[in-house]
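Key result, reporting period 2: structure in, sequence out.
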């Protein structure tokens, strides 16, 4: 596995390509079949969950704070800038969804399918992603501070420039993950096997117990002082 690779041009191009066009403005007061926005303190019922699914292409900028969306099918949904703070999205399907700059702080994402999703610059702090499928997702620049990634599959994901300090990587799959310029300081349960299966560069920040050096051929050496 090689380190020291420059991803700046690749990441810039990817951001342009991944971010879809802004969807039409959504006005629940005038648009037929729209979502009646819930009070943040009210618990969403099944009918509202169904409406969310039915209108998944018009969810950009919507506030669904503390929403009960466990098991929802939102594959390919347009959710740019959505506010899902403290929402329950456990076991939901958000594969290929556009969550650019979405606010998911404190949400329950256990077992969620985020494969191929656009999570560029999303706020995913304090989120539970236990056993989540995050394969090939774009999380460049995302805030994953203190996220629980226990058993999550992040293979092929782009985590360049992501904030991952104090995140828990116990049994997480980092095969092929782009960690260039990522901040991994103070993260928990990160192993050399995980690092060597990913791609890092000279700007990747590691926890104190991990020391990564580069060989003349560009390959990496890793030492774990916690073992």
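The corresponding designed sequence is given below.
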């Amino acid at each position: 596995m090689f380190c020291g690779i420059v991803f700046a041009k690749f990441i810039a191009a990817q951001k342009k390509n991944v971010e879809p066009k802004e969807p039409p403005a959504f006005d629940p007061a005038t648009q037929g079949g729209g979502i009646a926005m819930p009070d943040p303190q009210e618990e969403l019922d099944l009918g509202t969950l169904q409406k969310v699914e039915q209108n998944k292409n018009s969810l950009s900028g919507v506030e669904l704070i503390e929403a009960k969306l466990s098991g929802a099918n939102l594959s390919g949904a347009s959710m740019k800038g959505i506010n899902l703070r403290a929402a329950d999205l456990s076991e939901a399907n958000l594969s290929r969804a556009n969550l650019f700059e979405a606010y998911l702080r404190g949400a329950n994402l256990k077992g969620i399918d985020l494969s191929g999703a656009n999570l560029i610059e999303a706020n995913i702090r304090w989120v539970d992603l236990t056993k989540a499928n995050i394969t090939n997702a774009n999380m460049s620049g995302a805030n994953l501070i203190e996220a629980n990634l226990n058993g999550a599959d992040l293979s092929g994901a782009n985590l360049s420039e992501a904030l991952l300090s104090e995140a828990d990587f116990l049994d997480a799959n980092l095969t092929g993950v782009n960690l260039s310029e990522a901040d991994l300081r103070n993260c928990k349960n990160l192993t050399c096997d995980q690092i060597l299966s990913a791609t890092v560069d000279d700007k990747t920040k590691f926890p104190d117990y991990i020391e990564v050096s580069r060989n003349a051929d560009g390959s990496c050496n890793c030492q774990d002082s916690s073992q």
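The two ends are 22 Å apart (CA to CA). The mean pLDDT is 86. This case is discussed further under Risks and Mitigation.
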